[in-house]
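Lab notebook: predicted structure, single chain.

Context: the supervisor wants predicted structures on file for every construct in the current expression panel, including those that have not yet been purified. This is the next one on the list. No modifications to the sequence; it matches the entry in the shared construct table.
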Amino acid sequence: MRLTQYPLLLLPLLAVYCAHSQPQYLKFTHIGTGAGLSANNVTCILRDDQGFMWVGTRDGLNRYDGYRFTVYRNIPGSAKYQQQFRDLDDP
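Prediction complete. Output recorded below exactly as produced.
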C-alpha cells in the first residue's frame, strides 16, 4: 500500500500528533503586595507597546516591567493634578 494513494488516512494521524504537541499546562504566577503591587484589588490590566504591564488599583496605577513595580499615586492638590483636570474640562 502506497501512502500517496491514501492521503486521507494521514490526516487523522497528523491531527493527533499536532494535538499532543501542544503544551498541556499553563503556569500562573500570582503577584501581590509582597512583590510591590500597591493593592490586591485589581480593577484593570493593560499591556502597552513597550511590553509594560499597567495594573490599576484603588491605591494607584502600577507599572510592571517583569521584575518590579513602579507605583504612581494621585497627589490631590498638586499642580500637575489640577492642570490635568483643567485641560480635560476645557473644550
